[in-house]
Design goal:
seven-stranded mixed beta sheet, four-stranded antiparallel beta sheet, 17 helices, elongated, binds adenosine-5'-triphosphate, binds magnesium ion, AAA-ATPase
Length: 514
């Protein structure tokens, strides 16, 4: 034991001697430079290179530091053993982080990299306009020298993109409205926002699975299509027109789109916009990665100012538009480019003009119950790229509703019942909203819900059939009456196609009589 202590003492003596020798050779003023020198020599022979990404770059927060932190949070949660947890303001999720002075390996395109989270106490604060944190934080990236170009060219860009995605997913999304009219808030913002918490998703949306898949793919292609839009010289935006009877899921579809892509929604109330320049200002204040919605476009604005219409267009099949729109609800129109009103050309510029490109990655969605009332200029492709018909409930859509509301899979239902559903569903012309109501009402007793739904569908189908028959009878009675009137008057009905041929026949007869 004594020997052990004596050898330890002599070792300490040697160390003390070496230290004093080093101090003589490298006085304090040279020590830093000599360390740097040795470091350089070490670096020349090392196969690695290192990049420091500090949290604060001068006085500004380093965006790249935040991005790396977020990016690593997505992989660290799986592989790390000691993690730091944070929940940012306005965030809906907890993020994992690398603990102080901990390391994690990552790989990119088959290249391995090492990240170290370096935290050290900050030395006495020099004067600064803004208080600095007590700790100096930063990430050190270690990569092989031969991989340097690959990593710097694409890896850091990839991290920034990924971090933006994560931020968007974690961040509470917002629903904006311009219901304040043209007035601005204290920050000069024309939009008011509330957290957007609509639970509708593509899983809960009852539409044909084929159609659903097509829409989802289109949305994904759009969201990932930055390089495509750049390459083809197109503005990075897309338009969807959702049309169909009320209660078929148009608004639910918009919410599902926003939830799927993680976009904010701007619900534009056109009746609150006073003129085209106000519309443009609203557009300029929307952010990228957002859906700009105009609901019931046929009711929001008088769309007849670009091209005169004769007013005798096809009547709606669903319900009386006057009841829904009200006579004075449409935004007024003051001539082709009125100063005190919003015009169709203003709206077209909003979606398609140069101003529409002042941001990027934006989706425009218009909804209507009456597509036939819209100006063709609004419908041309490029403006509204996809026209989506939201139909009455079909059999595949019904199966989705049964699963959502009653947790019934197709296999849980008897073949006989499925067959009956298949037979009546299309004839009944019931909307998913109507069907949901029946299911919600009876959700405590699933079998009763199915029975009652089947009964309602049959009843509706019968009524439709009867009404259809009556209409047909009425039409044929009307035609019969018209024929009789014609015969009594001895002249054909004005303006009909038959008119010309009847005239000719009449003339021929007269000639024959002569
Ligand atoms: N396709 C659908 N899938 C799932 N639920 C639906 C669907 N369509 C309607 N619903 C249900 O009916 C309710 C009304 O639907 P929604 O508001 O989306 O209809 P809409 O087509 O926008 O009607 P409107 O034309 O009157 O605005 C929703 O709350 C939703 O629960
Ligand atoms: Mg709606």
């Amino acid at each position: 034991m004594r020997e052990y202590w004596s050898s330890l003492a002599s070792l300490l003596g040697v160390l003390a001697f070496c230290q004093s020798l080093l101090q003589v050779i490298f006085p304090p003023e040279l020590r830093f430079a000599s360390l740097k020198f040795f470091n350089r020599i070490f670096n020349v022979f090392s196969s690695y290179c290192y990049f420091d990404i500090t949290e604060i770059d001068g006085v500004n927060t380093n965006e790249l530091y935040n991005a790396v932190q977020l990016y690593l949070s997505s992989s660290v949660s799986i592989s790390g053993s000691r993690l730091s947890l944070t929940r940012a303001l306005n965030s809906s999720a907890i993020t994992f982080g690398l603990s102080n002075n901990d390391c994690i390996y990552d790989s990119f395109n088959g290249v391995a990299v090492l990240w170290e989270h370096v935290v050290s106490p900050r030395q006495t604060q020099t004067f600064s306009w803004r208080p600095l944190p007590e700790e100096k934080r930063g990430f050190t990236l270690r990569i092989k020298k031969k991989d340097k170009s690959l990593i710097l060219d694409s890896y850091l860009g990839f991290i920034m993109e990924k971090a933006n995605d994560i931020r968007r997913k974690n961040q509470e999304r917002l629903l904006y409205t311009n219901s304040r009219g043209g007035s601005l808030d204290s920050r000069g913002h024309p939009w008011e926002s509330v957290p957007f918490k609509h639970p509708s998703t593509f899983d809960t949306l009852a539409i044909d699975p084929e159609k659903k898949k097509e829409i989802m793919e289109d949305l994904k292609d759009f969201a990932n299509g930055q390089s495509f839009y750049q390459k083809t010289g197109r503005a990075w935006k897309r338009g969807y027109l959702l049309y169909g009877p009320p209660g078929t899921g148009k608004s639910s579809m918009i919410a599902a789109m926003a939830n799927y892509l993680g976009y904010d929604i701007y619900d534009l109330e056109l009746t609150e916009v006073h003129n085209n320049s106000e519309l443009r200002k609203l557009l300029m204040k929307t952010s990228s990665k957002s859906i700009i919605v105009i609901e019931d476009i046929d009711c929001s604005i008088n769309l007849t100012n670009r091209k005169k219409r004769n007013g005798s267009g096809p009547r709606n099949n669903y319900y009386d538009p006057e009841m829904r729109c009200g006579s004075g609800s449409a935004a007024s129109v003051g001539g082709e480019d009125g100063n005190n009103s919003i015009t169709l050309s203003g709206l077209l510029n909003f979606t398609d003009g140069l101003w529409s490109c002042c941001g990027s990655e934006r989706i425009f969605v218009f909804t209507t119950n009456h597509i036939e009332k819209l100006d063709p200029a609004l419908l041309r492709s490029g403006r509204m790229d996809m026209h989506i018909y939201m139909s009455y409930c079909s059999f595949p859509a019904l199966l989705i509703l049964l699963k959502n509301y009653l947790e019934y899979e197709e296999a849980d239902l008897e073949d006989e019942i499925l067959k009956e559903f298949k037979e009546v569903i299309d004839k009944s012309e019931m909307t998913p909203a109507d069907i949901s109501e029946v299911l919600i009402k009876n959700k405590r007793d699933k079998d009763k819900a199915v029975r009652e739904l089947l009964g309602t569908l049959k009843l509706k189908a019968e009524r439709k059939l009867k009404n259809g028959g009556l209409m047909r009878e009425k039409n044929s009675d009307d035609m019969e009456e018209e024929e009789q009137e014609k015969r009594a008057l001895g002249s054909p009905k004005e303006g009909s196609d038959i008119e010309d041929s009847n005239c000719k026949e009449g003339e021929d007869d007269e000639e024959k009589i002569k």
